[in-house]
Amino acid sequence: MDSGTFAWGITASALVLFMTPGVAFFYGGLVKAKSVVSMMMMSFGAMALVGLLWILVGFNMSVAPDVWGWAGNPFTEAFALNGVSSPDLVLAFFGSTFAIITVALISGAIADRAKFGSWMIFAGIWAIVVYFPVAAWVWV
Question: DSSP string of the chain?
Fold first, then answer.
């Protein structure tokens, strides 16, 4: 990977990552005053949770060889990005930003309807069961 491609990959990833706070502020402005902080925390909480899940299992589920034709094995040699080269780290960062914004966008559908803890449980399960396998089908 040449330096221009590497730099553009990082730039594009950062721009996608900046969308999540924008979504948080947008959704915060759409709800009643008493729910603003909760709504924004759902987007920022998704950012932290899905980012961590992507590093631990999501990247491998998306790029590792398929298990039963469904998704990659999350516990291969690159578990938690161990031993991943620089070009693959850019791909991992880029993929994580899309996973984060996808889950953050879902939070708008439950505005004023769910508690933060329930949302975090749902977001983690949804990312692992739905987003990571679909990313394996679409991105690879």
Answer: --HHHHHHHHHHHHHHHTHHHHHHHHHHHHS-GGGHHHHHHHHHHHHHHHHHHIIIIIHHHHHSPEETTTEE-TTSTTGGGTT--HHHHHHHHHHHHHHHHHHHHHGGGGTTTS-HHHHHHHHHHHIIIIIHHHHHHHH-
Q: Which CATH superfamily is domain 3-139 in?
A: Ammonium transporter AmtB like domains (1.10.3430.10)
| Domain ranges (residues) in the chain | 3-139
Q: pLDDT tens digits for 5-16? A: 889 999 999 999
